Amino acid sequence: MSFIGVGVDPPTPSWGTMIAGGVQSIQSYPHLLIAPAVAIGATLLALNVVGDALRDLFDPALRAARRG
């Protein structure tokens, strides 16, 4: 999001800049790319699970369909 002015300031590391740096040195140091990529993947998976749980909890149409 830094490219539209919403992200962190340049000296502060972000997952995107860490991945971009890791791509340049993937042959020598693959963990520099893998670690932030796994962190992004785990965060997205967790947000999906939380979102699905909230939908299941608060969607009355979905509840009515399950009851029969």
What's the quick description here?
The relative contact order is 0.08. The protein is mostly helical and 68 residues long.
Question: What would you say this structure looks like, in words?
Answer:
With 68 residues, the chain is mainly alpha-helical. It has 3 helices and no strands. The model has no long low-confidence stretch (mean pLDDT 82).
Largest sheet: none
- Counting DSSP H or I runs of 4 or more residues, the number of helices is 3
Structural class: mainly alpha
What is the count of β-strands?
Answer: 0
Q: What percentage of the residues does DSSP assign to strands (E)?
A: under 5%
Helix content: 55-70%
Taking Cα atoms only, what radius of gyration do you get, to the nearest Å?
A: 19 Å
| Mean model confidence by pLDDT | 82
Extract low-pLDDT stretches. none
Q: What is the H-and-E element order?
A: HHH
Q: Characterize the overall form.
A: elongated
**N-to-C span:** 44 Å
